[in-house]
Fold these 4 entries.
Entry 1:
Amino acid sequence: MKKLVVAVLVAFSFASLPQLVHAQDGTYPPIQFFSSISRDKLLEVLKDDPKFANIDNEALGSPIVLQVRHATRMTAGGSASLMTSALLSGSTLGLIPVVSNDDLIVTYEVLVHGIPIASFEYIENFTDADSLYNSNMHELEGDALAWAEGTVETFLQELNDDPKVQDLIDEYRYYFADSPY
């Protein structure tokens, strides 16, 4: 009876070898991607990392989702400058530009079945001067866009160091080692 138990245990240990080999290739499982910032550019930079070979904005049904979104938060000085310059711009029929000073916040969030497991936030302050008539307040342009696109490298470094994300990837590989993702 003992020989049978030992034989079964040995067989199960050899059955887990493909799992160990697959876990060492380093690629993440399929990840669905959403972004409010130049989606194609960020997706291209993420796919340059070999771990993100399976990330796609059309990976529908994937339990793991990476969301990248941006928001602005007005500073105290930015509020005063915006109000003053808007009044001056309005009184001169738009000859004087509207000046704003906001913090741009870029957030990378990893979700599993809609529940956030990791969030990475990057903040930078920007001052902008726009025409009263051509103001495009919701789109990123120029330096702000370049900075937001540059946060990907920092995100990748922090993601590799996050223990919750690594536990998630290890658990995914444990249960789905034989899948061809």
Entry 2:
Amino acid sequence: MKLKYAIIATIIFNLVLISIFLCRQYKEYHNRKHDYIRIIEASKAKIIKEIENTNFYSDTDPQIDKSAKNVLVFHFSMQACQPCLEGIREIIKSEFPDYAKNKNIIFFSNDIENRLRKNFLGKQITTSLKKEKIPLSKYTTPLLFTIDSNNTVQNIFIPDKDDTESLRNYLKKIKNNYFSKM
């Protein structure tokens, strides 16, 4: 009988230890996740601070229509993951069904291969033959922004593949504020 109580006490003790261990692991996981999110947000803020309110193109850049007002730019690097780029394109396509022919929506990449420039992600890719005015080429992170009538980068958005709803909301806001007036 004493052996039975000893076994029950040992089982209860082990369950308590396992519970404490799992609670600590759960807390550590959330701390790491919180730190990771903070690092990502700081990186996004750095990118935004560096390129916001800068000029997008030079006056002599032949590939960019300088008469267009309020242009939406999807900037990407070929180093970004292809499924991520395709996912962003699909969301752009759902909000702007005419994105492929809309001259006020630019897909921009300076490291795309020549053979892909005519049709990549369903659209002709704009590249700059001149040195970029903003330091986009050092970032492999896809990002979206608008160019206003003064050639100034505004409304920078860095999409998160795990939060497609925020990208949809961003595109809806851009569509309502800039494209509904056209």
Entry 3:
Amino acid sequence: MAMNFGLKNTSGISSNKPLLKPYGIYPVTFSGVETSEFAGKKDPSKKFKVMRVRFDGKDGYYTETVFFPETEKDMERMSFDNTDRDGKPYKSYMPSSYDKAMAIVAQIAAVVNPEGWKKMQEVSDKFTSFADVANALKKITDPMKGKFETNLKLTGRVSNGQLQPTLPNFVRINRDGEAYL
């Protein structure tokens, strides 16, 4: 086969969007919710399910990836000792993977499609797994893909020695053990 050095069908501009940078607020458009499954790196027989929520803007894109909470370990809240302003000790708790996943779903649904969120809440007693929750979120937000515009605030976290963008931690656990946004 002969090499063809013609440039008629070659773009000089990348079609890839960069990842939005940490610690910024960006005008973005909601691009949708997708679910997928992949094999583990350490144990390829172990399957992981994730939900991805994507936002696109002129400066780039951001995708929040949420692993499906499926085990009792996903419900565990880590604790640490703390003191109040009077010096009295008490236990503080960090939100579990389940708490974080449900808070992200609630936040996305309530902001992107408030009417759909109300309907989702009404039927949520019938959900038996996080897959049901993710599918319901996808269903109520699909009509808003490419239409809903907002400002997305990103913070940062270090992963594999690199600073990566992430959504702010917007779920906390109060002293009574209740999760709140």
Entry 4:
Amino acid sequence: MFPMDHGIVGKTIQTYNYTTSWDLGVNSSDNALYTFRQVLKAAVFTQSGSSVIVTFQAGSTNLVIDGAYIGAQGAGDAYDFAATPVQLLFGGLGSVEITADATKASDTASISITASGVYVVSMYFNTTAKGSAKQTNDNLQANTANYYKSGSDAATVDATGYTGPDADQYVIKSIQVFGP
């Protein structure tokens, strides 16, 4: 048996993994049947990368996310995507129920992340129960902006009619970026 050359012999491979995280401590309730769009400003992304894992956190009751997406910010409204966003999956599925006070990480999603780029993460909370989400307290997150709207609108590129911004960080506990 000889070692196989997978095209990497003699080449330096630089990989990294960095995480941006938030301390979510306050429960936000009555999120059912709303789409939230979290704008993550340039200071969040310190290095470029080729994939992400986004971790979400429920509040004091279960939270159903029925569609979550990430993409570069567009040129229109602050919450618009530049192009069709990448869907975040959970065990290969497009929706997930997060039990009370728990976190759930998405599958690894392939997306080109540019250092100091601005990105939007959108999510639709589809449940007839009052889903609750964790959020920061007192607008502590200078590097984020949150927008929300009644109804399912998470994948729309050129969205309209959102309320916001407010600087609270909702639902997103952390984002891991993988390179190169």
